[in-house]
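quick one before i forget lol
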Amino acid sequence: MRLKPKPGDFFIVLFIAAAAVIMMISMRQADTGEKTALIIHDGVVVKKIRLDTLDHTEIHEYSGEYPGVIEAENGRIRFREAECPDQVCVRTGWISKNGQIAVCLPEGILIKITGVDSAEDDTDILLY
């Protein structure tokens, strides 16, 4: 048995699509010129890197059960290598926009890019 769409179904689909677009636009942070990467280990900020003024490649090595290396260049940052079993953090690749995050869950490392309008003390994710 085939269901036939009713006239009101079109308006419901249109409303849901419009709500999704509005939510995407309102949640997106402005990509300002100033970009700061926060490297957070177990809820503590261990390093801040100004990505917009970085003129060299900066390397941050972290230790623990799953040690690894974070690499930052002008305007972007990534997990270059990690010894965690799933390698999701490494496969995330480069992040470069305000509000983007990359996470190594097994080690509890979070990289977050903030800008002028972003609050550094807000919580996006908790790692335990």
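fyi The domain at 36-114 is CATH 2.60.320.10 (mini-chromosome maintenance (MCM) complex, domain 2).
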